[in-house]
Amino acid sequence: MTTDSNRVIIFDTTLRDGEQSPGASMNLEEKLRIASILEEMGVDVIEAGFPIASEGDFESVSEIAKQAKNASICGLARAARGDIERCFNAVKHAPKHRIHTFISTSPLHMKYKLQMEPDAVLAKVKESVTFARSLVEDVEWSAEDGTRTEADFLCRCVEAAIDAGARTINIPDTVGYTVPEEYYALIDMLMNRVPNIDKAIISTHCHNDLGLAVANSLSAVRAGARQVECTINGLGERAGNAALEEIVMALRTRKDFLPYDTGIKSELITRASRMVSAITGFSVQPNKAIVGKNAFAHESGIHQDGMLKHAGTYEIMTPESVGLDNANKIVLGKHSGRHAFKDKLSALGYELGDNALNDAFKRFKDLADQKKDVYDEDIIALVDDEVMRVNERVKLKHFQVTCGTHVKEQIAALAIEVDGEERKTIAAGDGPVDAAFKAIKEIVPLPNAHLELYQVHAVTKGTDAQAEVTVRLEEDGKTVNGRGADVDTMVASVTAYLNAVNKLLVKRTKGKPEDIGTI
User: Which three-class secondary structure state does DSSP give residue 332?
Assistant: First the structure.
Protein backbone atom coordinates (compact mmCIF):
# COMPACT_ATOMS: atom_id res chain seq x y z
CA MET A 1 0.00 0.00 0.00
CA THR A 2 2.94 2.31 0.64
CA THR A 3 6.63 2.37 -0.30
CA ASP A 4 7.69 4.99 2.25
CA SER A 5 9.73 3.17 4.89
CA ASN A 6 8.66 5.65 7.56
CA ARG A 7 4.95 5.58 6.72
CA VAL A 8 2.75 3.72 9.22
CA ILE A 9 -0.49 2.31 7.82
CA ILE A 10 -3.47 2.89 10.09
CA PHE A 11 -5.85 -0.08 10.07
CA ASP A 12 -9.05 0.75 11.95
CA THR A 13 -11.12 -2.11 13.33
CA THR A 14 -13.74 -0.11 15.26
CA LEU A 15 -16.50 -1.63 13.11
CA ARG A 16 -15.29 -5.20 13.64
CA ASP A 17 -13.30 -5.69 16.84
CA GLY A 18 -14.80 -2.57 18.37
CA GLU A 19 -18.34 -3.81 17.82
CA GLN A 20 -17.45 -7.06 19.57
CA SER A 21 -17.14 -5.09 22.80
CA PRO A 22 -20.12 -6.11 24.98
CA GLY A 23 -22.88 -3.55 24.46
CA ALA A 24 -21.37 -1.87 21.38
CA SER A 25 -24.06 -2.76 18.88
CA MET A 26 -24.40 -0.67 15.71
CA ASN A 27 -26.99 -0.69 12.95
CA LEU A 28 -26.22 -0.28 9.25
CA GLU A 29 -26.72 3.47 9.10
CA GLU A 30 -24.52 4.00 12.16
CA LYS A 31 -21.75 1.86 10.66
CA LEU A 32 -21.93 3.81 7.41
CA ARG A 33 -21.58 7.09 9.31
CA ILE A 34 -18.56 5.84 11.23
CA ALA A 35 -16.96 4.45 8.05
CA SER A 36 -17.47 7.86 6.40
CA ILE A 37 -15.67 9.77 9.17
CA LEU A 38 -12.87 7.18 9.18
CA GLU A 39 -12.34 7.73 5.45
CA GLU A 40 -12.46 11.48 5.90
CA MET A 41 -9.79 11.16 8.61
CA GLY A 42 -7.50 9.34 6.18
CA VAL A 43 -7.64 5.82 7.66
CA ASP A 44 -5.82 3.52 5.23
CA VAL A 45 -7.71 0.28 5.92
CA ILE A 46 -11.19 -0.04 7.43
CA GLU A 47 -12.00 -3.49 8.78
CA ALA A 48 -15.74 -3.26 8.29
CA GLY A 49 -16.85 -6.53 9.88
CA PHE A 50 -16.97 -10.32 9.89
CA PRO A 51 -19.13 -11.11 6.82
CA ILE A 52 -19.77 -14.76 7.74
CA ALA A 53 -21.08 -13.83 11.20
CA SER A 54 -24.59 -12.86 10.08
CA GLU A 55 -26.64 -11.43 7.23
CA GLY A 56 -26.46 -8.08 8.99
CA ASP A 57 -22.66 -8.15 9.10
CA PHE A 58 -22.47 -9.15 5.43
CA GLU A 59 -24.83 -6.34 4.43
CA SER A 60 -22.89 -3.78 6.50
CA VAL A 61 -19.53 -4.71 4.95
CA SER A 62 -21.06 -4.69 1.46
CA GLU A 63 -22.65 -1.26 1.87
CA ILE A 64 -19.48 0.21 3.39
CA ALA A 65 -17.52 -1.19 0.44
CA LYS A 66 -19.96 0.42 -2.00
CA GLN A 67 -19.58 3.89 -0.44
CA ALA A 68 -15.78 3.68 -0.08
CA LYS A 69 -13.61 6.01 -2.14
CA ASN A 70 -10.03 6.00 -0.84
CA ALA A 71 -9.74 3.55 2.06
CA SER A 72 -9.23 -0.16 1.51
CA ILE A 73 -12.24 -2.06 2.86
CA CYS A 74 -11.36 -5.23 4.71
CA GLY A 75 -13.36 -8.16 6.02
CA LEU A 76 -12.30 -10.84 8.49
CA ALA A 77 -12.44 -14.56 7.70
CA ARG A 78 -11.40 -17.74 9.44
CA ALA A 79 -9.17 -20.21 7.59
CA ALA A 80 -12.19 -21.76 5.88
CA ARG A 81 -13.25 -21.61 2.24
CA GLY A 82 -16.82 -20.55 3.08
CA ASP A 83 -15.62 -17.68 5.28
CA ILE A 84 -13.19 -16.44 2.64
CA GLU A 85 -15.74 -16.59 -0.20
CA ARG A 86 -18.29 -14.75 1.91
CA CYS A 87 -15.71 -12.12 2.79
CA PHE A 88 -14.77 -11.60 -0.87
CA ASN A 89 -18.39 -11.19 -1.92
CA ALA A 90 -18.81 -8.47 0.72
CA VAL A 91 -15.64 -6.43 0.10
CA LYS A 92 -15.42 -6.78 -3.69
CA HIS A 93 -17.56 -3.66 -4.25
CA ALA A 94 -14.84 -1.33 -2.93
CA PRO A 95 -12.24 0.15 -5.32
CA LYS A 96 -9.62 -1.20 -2.91
CA HIS A 97 -10.38 -4.28 -0.83
CA ARG A 98 -8.69 -6.81 1.40
CA ILE A 99 -9.36 -10.25 2.82
CA HIS A 100 -8.02 -10.74 6.34
CA THR A 101 -7.80 -14.41 7.28
CA PHE A 102 -6.51 -15.92 10.52
CA ILE A 103 -5.87 -19.08 12.48
CA SER A 104 -4.52 -19.78 15.97
CA THR A 105 -0.84 -20.70 16.23
CA SER A 106 -0.09 -20.89 19.97
CA PRO A 107 0.29 -24.35 21.60
CA LEU A 108 -2.59 -23.55 23.97
CA HIS A 109 -5.00 -22.58 21.18
CA MET A 110 -3.97 -25.37 18.83
CA LYS A 111 -4.46 -28.03 21.51
CA TYR A 112 -7.63 -26.87 23.22
CA LYS A 113 -9.41 -24.60 20.75
CA LEU A 114 -8.55 -26.01 17.32
CA GLN A 115 -7.63 -29.53 18.46
CA MET A 116 -5.15 -29.61 15.58
CA GLU A 117 -1.50 -30.58 15.28
CA PRO A 118 1.00 -27.88 14.23
CA ASP A 119 1.55 -29.44 10.79
CA ALA A 120 -2.19 -29.36 10.14
CA VAL A 121 -2.35 -25.72 11.16
CA LEU A 122 0.57 -24.91 8.87
CA ALA A 123 -1.23 -26.63 6.00
CA LYS A 124 -4.34 -24.55 6.76
CA VAL A 125 -2.27 -21.37 6.61
CA LYS A 126 -1.04 -22.24 3.12
CA GLU A 127 -4.45 -23.37 1.90
CA SER A 128 -6.43 -20.39 3.23
CA VAL A 129 -4.01 -17.70 2.06
CA THR A 130 -3.64 -19.32 -1.36
CA PHE A 131 -7.42 -19.39 -1.82
CA ALA A 132 -7.82 -15.80 -0.58
CA ARG A 133 -5.08 -14.63 -2.95
CA SER A 134 -6.88 -16.31 -5.86
CA LEU A 135 -9.77 -13.90 -5.21
CA VAL A 136 -8.00 -10.64 -4.31
CA GLU A 137 -4.58 -9.04 -4.63
CA ASP A 138 -4.51 -7.76 -1.06
CA VAL A 139 -4.45 -10.52 1.57
CA GLU A 140 -3.61 -10.17 5.25
CA TRP A 141 -2.85 -13.18 7.42
CA SER A 142 -2.97 -13.20 11.23
CA ALA A 143 -1.47 -15.61 13.74
CA GLU A 144 -4.12 -15.62 16.46
CA ASP A 145 -2.44 -15.56 19.90
CA GLY A 146 0.78 -14.77 18.08
CA THR A 147 2.60 -13.43 21.12
CA ARG A 148 2.25 -16.81 22.89
CA THR A 149 3.34 -18.81 19.83
CA GLU A 150 6.65 -20.70 19.75
CA ALA A 151 9.21 -18.71 17.75
CA ASP A 152 10.22 -21.46 15.32
CA PHE A 153 6.63 -22.36 14.46
CA LEU A 154 5.64 -18.70 14.09
CA CYS A 155 8.50 -18.16 11.64
CA ARG A 156 7.41 -21.17 9.60
CA CYS A 157 3.81 -19.96 9.46
CA VAL A 158 4.78 -16.40 8.52
CA GLU A 159 7.10 -17.62 5.76
CA ALA A 160 4.40 -19.97 4.43
CA ALA A 161 1.75 -17.22 4.46
CA ILE A 162 4.01 -14.86 2.51
CA ASP A 163 4.90 -17.62 0.02
CA ALA A 164 1.16 -18.23 -0.45
CA GLY A 165 0.56 -14.57 -1.30
CA ALA A 166 -0.07 -12.64 1.94
CA ARG A 167 1.28 -9.12 1.74
CA THR A 168 0.47 -8.13 5.31
CA ILE A 169 1.40 -10.31 8.28
CA ASN A 170 -0.32 -9.51 11.55
CA ILE A 171 1.12 -10.65 14.87
CA PRO A 172 -1.72 -10.09 17.37
CA ASP A 173 -1.35 -9.87 21.10
CA THR A 174 -4.78 -11.47 21.29
CA VAL A 175 -5.07 -11.62 25.06
CA GLY A 176 -3.06 -8.50 25.91
CA TYR A 177 -0.29 -10.52 27.53
CA THR A 178 2.96 -9.15 26.10
CA VAL A 179 5.08 -6.18 27.26
CA PRO A 180 6.89 -3.65 25.03
CA GLU A 181 10.41 -5.11 25.25
CA GLU A 182 9.12 -8.61 24.57
CA TYR A 183 6.96 -7.49 21.64
CA TYR A 184 9.87 -5.49 20.16
CA ALA A 185 12.05 -8.61 20.34
CA LEU A 186 9.35 -10.72 18.67
CA ILE A 187 8.92 -8.35 15.71
CA ASP A 188 12.69 -7.90 15.44
CA MET A 189 13.12 -11.69 15.41
CA LEU A 190 10.66 -12.05 12.51
CA MET A 191 12.36 -9.23 10.59
CA ASN A 192 15.68 -11.03 10.87
CA ARG A 193 14.71 -14.72 10.69
CA VAL A 194 11.98 -14.99 8.07
CA PRO A 195 13.76 -15.08 4.67
CA ASN A 196 10.92 -13.55 2.61
CA ILE A 197 9.82 -10.94 5.17
CA ASP A 198 10.82 -8.14 2.77
CA LYS A 199 7.78 -9.07 0.64
CA ALA A 200 5.28 -8.22 3.38
CA ILE A 201 4.36 -5.52 5.88
CA ILE A 202 4.27 -6.56 9.53
CA SER A 203 1.19 -5.45 11.43
CA THR A 204 0.37 -5.12 15.11
CA HIS A 205 -2.97 -5.83 16.79
CA CYS A 206 -2.65 -5.28 20.53
CA HIS A 207 -5.29 -5.72 23.22
CA ASN A 208 -5.22 -3.63 26.36
CA ASP A 209 -5.71 -6.20 29.15
CA LEU A 210 -2.59 -4.96 30.95
CA GLY A 211 -2.97 -1.37 29.76
CA LEU A 212 -0.05 -1.79 27.33
CA ALA A 213 -1.76 -1.90 23.92
CA VAL A 214 -0.48 1.48 22.70
CA ALA A 215 2.98 1.03 24.21
CA ASN A 216 3.30 -2.42 22.63
CA SER A 217 2.13 -1.13 19.23
CA LEU A 218 4.64 1.72 19.23
CA SER A 219 7.39 -0.63 20.32
CA ALA A 220 6.57 -2.90 17.36
CA VAL A 221 6.74 0.08 14.99
CA ARG A 222 10.24 0.82 16.28
CA ALA A 223 11.15 -2.80 15.56
CA GLY A 224 9.95 -2.59 11.95
CA ALA A 225 6.17 -3.05 11.92
CA ARG A 226 4.52 -0.64 9.51
CA GLN A 227 0.83 -1.24 10.12
CA VAL A 228 -1.01 -0.63 13.40
CA GLU A 229 -4.47 -2.07 14.00
CA CYS A 230 -6.46 0.12 16.37
CA THR A 231 -9.91 1.52 17.20
CA ILE A 232 -11.48 4.86 17.99
CA ASN A 233 -11.51 5.42 21.79
CA GLY A 234 -9.71 2.07 22.21
CA LEU A 235 -13.04 0.27 21.82
CA GLY A 236 -12.88 -3.52 21.75
CA GLU A 237 -13.35 -6.82 23.53
CA ARG A 238 -12.53 -7.02 27.25
CA ALA A 239 -10.24 -4.05 28.03
CA GLY A 240 -10.25 -2.91 24.41
CA ASN A 241 -7.67 -2.32 21.70
CA ALA A 242 -4.88 0.15 21.04
CA ALA A 243 -6.56 3.56 20.68
CA LEU A 244 -6.17 5.14 17.25
CA GLU A 245 -6.04 8.66 18.68
CA GLU A 246 -3.21 7.75 21.07
CA ILE A 247 -1.17 6.00 18.36
CA VAL A 248 -1.55 8.88 15.91
CA MET A 249 -0.80 11.65 18.40
CA ALA A 250 2.16 9.79 19.92
CA LEU A 251 3.71 9.48 16.46
CA ARG A 252 2.92 13.12 15.69
CA THR A 253 4.13 14.53 19.03
CA ARG A 254 7.29 12.44 19.52
CA LYS A 255 8.91 12.56 16.09
CA ASP A 256 12.27 12.95 17.83
CA PHE A 257 11.95 9.38 19.09
CA LEU A 258 9.37 7.96 16.66
CA PRO A 259 10.24 9.42 13.22
CA TYR A 260 7.20 7.95 11.47
CA ASP A 261 4.18 9.42 9.72
CA THR A 262 0.54 8.48 9.24
CA GLY A 263 -2.00 9.85 6.78
CA ILE A 264 -4.46 10.76 9.53
CA LYS A 265 -6.01 14.23 9.71
CA SER A 266 -5.73 14.53 13.46
CA GLU A 267 -8.06 17.55 13.56
CA LEU A 268 -10.95 15.11 13.03
CA ILE A 269 -10.07 12.91 16.01
CA THR A 270 -12.41 14.56 18.52
CA ARG A 271 -15.31 14.47 16.08
CA ALA A 272 -14.77 10.76 15.39
CA SER A 273 -14.41 10.04 19.10
CA ARG A 274 -17.69 11.75 19.93
CA MET A 275 -19.52 10.01 17.11
CA VAL A 276 -18.35 6.54 18.16
CA SER A 277 -19.17 7.29 21.80
CA ALA A 278 -22.67 8.51 20.92
CA ILE A 279 -23.46 5.58 18.62
CA THR A 280 -22.11 2.81 20.85
CA GLY A 281 -23.27 4.29 24.15
CA PHE A 282 -19.74 3.97 25.58
CA SER A 283 -18.85 7.20 27.40
CA VAL A 284 -15.24 8.35 27.19
CA GLN A 285 -13.71 8.57 30.65
CA PRO A 286 -12.83 12.17 31.60
CA ASN A 287 -9.11 11.44 32.02
CA LYS A 288 -8.81 9.46 28.77
CA ALA A 289 -5.72 10.51 26.81
CA ILE A 290 -6.30 12.81 23.81
CA VAL A 291 -10.12 12.76 23.76
CA GLY A 292 -11.12 12.80 27.44
CA LYS A 293 -12.96 15.82 28.82
CA ASN A 294 -9.98 16.63 31.08
CA ALA A 295 -7.25 15.95 28.50
CA PHE A 296 -6.60 19.69 28.09
CA ALA A 297 -7.97 20.89 31.45
CA HIS A 298 -5.68 22.50 34.02
CA GLU A 299 -6.92 22.97 37.59
CA SER A 300 -3.68 23.21 39.57
CA GLY A 301 -2.73 26.83 40.29
CA ILE A 302 0.87 26.17 39.28
CA HIS A 303 -0.27 24.62 35.99
CA GLN A 304 -2.66 27.49 35.27
CA ASP A 305 0.05 30.06 35.92
CA GLY A 306 2.41 28.26 33.58
CA MET A 307 -0.25 27.95 30.88
CA LEU A 308 -0.96 31.67 31.00
CA LYS A 309 2.73 32.41 30.50
CA HIS A 310 3.33 29.78 27.80
CA ALA A 311 1.03 26.93 26.75
CA GLY A 312 4.01 24.65 26.18
CA THR A 313 4.76 24.56 29.89
CA TYR A 314 2.04 21.98 30.47
CA GLU A 315 0.62 21.09 27.03
CA ILE A 316 2.60 18.84 24.72
CA MET A 317 0.03 19.22 21.92
CA THR A 318 -2.61 21.80 21.16
CA PRO A 319 -6.35 21.21 21.57
CA GLU A 320 -6.78 22.39 17.98
CA SER A 321 -4.51 19.59 16.71
CA VAL A 322 -7.18 17.04 17.70
CA GLY A 323 -10.15 19.16 16.70
CA LEU A 324 -10.94 21.01 19.93
CA ASP A 325 -11.62 24.71 19.39
CA ASN A 326 -10.92 26.04 22.86
CA ALA A 327 -10.85 29.60 21.54
CA ASN A 328 -14.52 29.44 20.58
CA LYS A 329 -16.15 29.60 24.01
CA ILE A 330 -19.31 31.53 23.09
CA VAL A 331 -22.15 30.50 25.39
CA LEU A 332 -25.49 30.33 23.58
CA GLY A 333 -28.90 31.16 25.02
CA LYS A 334 -32.55 31.37 24.02
CA HIS A 335 -31.95 34.52 21.93
CA SER A 336 -29.20 32.89 19.86
CA GLY A 337 -30.13 32.47 16.21
CA ARG A 338 -29.82 29.61 13.74
CA HIS A 339 -26.63 31.05 12.23
CA ALA A 340 -24.84 31.22 15.60
CA PHE A 341 -26.01 27.70 16.39
CA LYS A 342 -24.74 26.38 13.05
CA ASP A 343 -21.36 28.09 13.59
CA LYS A 344 -21.14 26.53 17.05
CA LEU A 345 -21.91 23.07 15.64
CA SER A 346 -19.20 23.50 13.02
CA ALA A 347 -16.68 24.57 15.68
CA LEU A 348 -17.58 21.46 17.66
CA GLY A 349 -16.97 19.24 14.63
CA TYR A 350 -20.57 18.60 13.56
CA GLU A 351 -21.67 19.05 9.95
CA LEU A 352 -25.40 18.37 9.75
CA GLY A 353 -27.69 18.25 6.74
CA ASP A 354 -30.61 20.70 6.54
CA ASN A 355 -33.19 18.35 8.08
CA ALA A 356 -30.88 17.25 10.90
CA LEU A 357 -29.88 20.87 11.51
CA ASN A 358 -33.52 21.93 11.75
CA ASP A 359 -34.26 19.16 14.25
CA ALA A 360 -31.16 19.98 16.31
CA PHE A 361 -31.97 23.71 16.30
CA LYS A 362 -35.51 23.04 17.53
CA ARG A 363 -34.17 20.89 20.37
CA PHE A 364 -31.60 23.59 21.17
CA LYS A 365 -34.33 26.25 21.44
CA ASP A 366 -36.37 23.95 23.68
CA LEU A 367 -33.30 23.42 25.87
CA ALA A 368 -32.52 27.16 25.92
CA ASP A 369 -36.03 27.83 27.22
CA GLN A 370 -35.28 25.54 30.16
CA LYS A 371 -31.80 26.76 31.10
CA LYS A 372 -30.21 30.19 30.94
CA ASP A 373 -26.85 29.31 29.40
CA VAL A 374 -26.24 26.49 26.92
CA TYR A 375 -22.62 25.32 26.99
CA ASP A 376 -20.61 23.34 24.46
CA GLU A 377 -21.16 20.18 26.51
CA ASP A 378 -24.92 20.75 26.39
CA ILE A 379 -24.89 21.01 22.60
CA ILE A 380 -22.69 17.93 22.26
CA ALA A 381 -25.06 15.94 24.47
CA LEU A 382 -28.07 17.28 22.56
CA VAL A 383 -26.72 16.44 19.10
CA ASP A 384 -25.31 13.07 20.17
CA ASP A 385 -28.68 12.21 21.71
CA GLU A 386 -30.33 13.03 18.38
CA VAL A 387 -27.75 10.91 16.53
CA MET A 388 -28.69 7.87 18.62
CA ARG A 389 -32.39 8.21 17.80
CA VAL A 390 -32.09 8.00 13.99
CA ASN A 391 -34.32 5.25 12.59
CA GLU A 392 -35.23 3.83 16.00
CA ARG A 393 -38.20 1.45 15.96
CA VAL A 394 -39.30 2.35 19.49
CA LYS A 395 -39.73 6.07 20.28
CA LEU A 396 -40.94 8.05 23.28
CA LYS A 397 -44.12 10.06 22.70
CA HIS A 398 -45.26 11.03 26.20
CA PHE A 399 -44.11 10.35 29.73
CA GLN A 400 -45.33 11.38 33.17
CA VAL A 401 -44.37 10.09 36.60
CA THR A 402 -45.93 10.52 40.05
CA CYS A 403 -43.62 10.17 43.05
CA GLY A 404 -42.76 11.72 46.40
CA THR A 405 -42.56 11.12 50.13
CA HIS A 406 -46.31 10.88 50.73
CA VAL A 407 -47.23 8.96 47.58
CA LYS A 408 -48.23 5.34 48.27
CA GLU A 409 -47.16 4.13 44.82
CA GLN A 410 -44.74 5.51 42.28
CA ILE A 411 -46.68 5.61 39.02
CA ALA A 412 -45.42 6.02 35.45
CA ALA A 413 -47.77 6.86 32.55
CA LEU A 414 -46.10 6.16 29.23
CA ALA A 415 -46.90 6.46 25.53
CA ILE A 416 -44.47 4.83 23.10
CA GLU A 417 -44.49 4.59 19.33
CA VAL A 418 -43.56 1.09 18.14
CA ASP A 419 -42.99 0.77 14.39
CA GLY A 420 -45.27 3.77 13.86
CA GLU A 421 -48.06 2.57 16.16
CA GLU A 422 -48.67 4.42 19.43
CA ARG A 423 -49.13 2.30 22.56
CA LYS A 424 -49.91 3.46 26.11
CA THR A 425 -49.69 1.98 29.58
CA ILE A 426 -49.50 2.84 33.28
CA ALA A 427 -47.21 0.96 35.66
CA ALA A 428 -46.35 1.08 39.36
CA GLY A 429 -42.91 0.51 40.83
CA ASP A 430 -40.70 0.78 43.89
CA GLY A 431 -39.50 4.16 42.64
CA PRO A 432 -39.99 6.41 39.60
CA VAL A 433 -37.21 4.73 37.60
CA ASP A 434 -38.51 1.25 38.41
CA ALA A 435 -42.05 2.31 37.45
CA ALA A 436 -40.88 3.85 34.16
CA PHE A 437 -38.83 0.82 33.15
CA LYS A 438 -41.68 -1.56 34.05
CA ALA A 439 -44.00 0.50 31.84
CA ILE A 440 -41.58 0.13 28.93
CA LYS A 441 -41.40 -3.63 29.43
CA GLU A 442 -45.21 -3.85 29.41
CA ILE A 443 -45.30 -2.28 25.95
CA VAL A 444 -42.15 -3.96 24.60
CA PRO A 445 -41.93 -7.42 26.21
CA LEU A 446 -38.38 -8.24 27.26
CA PRO A 447 -38.81 -11.32 29.48
CA ASN A 448 -35.11 -12.26 29.45
CA ALA A 449 -33.60 -8.78 29.57
CA HIS A 450 -31.84 -7.75 32.77
CA LEU A 451 -30.76 -4.26 33.80
CA GLU A 452 -27.02 -4.46 34.49
CA LEU A 453 -26.20 -0.76 34.80
CA TYR A 454 -28.07 2.46 35.51
CA GLN A 455 -25.81 5.50 35.76
CA VAL A 456 -26.53 9.24 35.89
CA HIS A 457 -24.17 12.18 35.63
CA ALA A 458 -24.57 15.92 35.00
CA VAL A 459 -23.38 17.20 31.62
CA THR A 460 -22.50 20.64 33.05
CA LYS A 461 -22.56 22.38 36.42
CA GLY A 462 -25.64 23.95 38.00
CA THR A 463 -29.04 22.75 39.09
CA ASP A 464 -30.39 23.23 35.57
CA ALA A 465 -27.75 20.95 34.03
CA GLN A 466 -28.76 18.23 31.61
CA ALA A 467 -28.61 14.72 33.00
CA GLU A 468 -26.89 12.11 30.88
CA VAL A 469 -28.05 8.58 31.70
CA THR A 470 -26.41 5.31 30.68
CA VAL A 471 -28.35 2.04 30.77
CA ARG A 472 -26.97 -1.44 30.11
CA LEU A 473 -29.25 -4.36 29.28
CA GLU A 474 -28.29 -8.02 29.00
CA GLU A 475 -30.39 -10.63 27.21
CA ASP A 476 -29.27 -14.21 26.56
CA GLY A 477 -25.59 -13.28 26.52
CA LYS A 478 -26.09 -10.19 24.37
CA THR A 479 -25.28 -6.86 26.02
CA VAL A 480 -26.22 -3.36 24.84
CA ASN A 481 -25.66 0.16 26.14
CA GLY A 482 -28.21 2.95 25.84
CA ARG A 483 -27.77 6.66 26.49
CA GLY A 484 -30.14 9.58 26.92
CA ALA A 485 -29.77 13.25 27.81
CA ASP A 486 -32.34 15.74 29.06
CA VAL A 487 -32.73 18.42 31.74
CA ASP A 488 -35.32 16.07 33.27
CA THR A 489 -33.45 13.10 34.73
CA MET A 490 -36.48 10.84 34.40
CA VAL A 491 -36.95 11.68 30.72
CA ALA A 492 -33.24 11.01 30.16
CA SER A 493 -33.65 7.68 31.96
CA VAL A 494 -36.56 6.63 29.75
CA THR A 495 -34.83 7.67 26.51
CA ALA A 496 -31.67 5.82 27.58
CA TYR A 497 -33.64 2.65 28.29
CA LEU A 498 -35.46 2.95 24.96
CA ASN A 499 -32.15 3.46 23.19
CA ALA A 500 -30.93 0.21 24.76
CA VAL A 501 -34.17 -1.56 23.75
CA ASN A 502 -33.70 -0.47 20.14
CA LYS A 503 -30.13 -1.75 20.12
CA LEU A 504 -31.28 -5.03 21.64
CA LEU A 505 -33.81 -5.44 18.84
CA VAL A 506 -30.98 -4.96 16.34
CA LYS A 507 -28.68 -7.33 18.18
CA ARG A 508 -31.33 -10.07 18.29
CA THR A 509 -30.90 -10.43 14.51
CA LYS A 510 -27.15 -10.92 14.80
CA GLY A 511 -25.40 -14.17 15.50
CA LYS A 512 -22.01 -15.77 15.34
CA PRO A 513 -21.03 -19.09 13.77
CA GLU A 514 -19.79 -21.59 16.27
CA ASP A 515 -16.25 -20.90 17.55
CA ILE A 516 -15.87 -17.77 15.46
CA GLY A 517 -12.74 -16.77 17.31
CA THR A 518 -11.06 -13.40 17.43
CA ILE A 519 -7.65 -11.86 16.94
Answer: strand
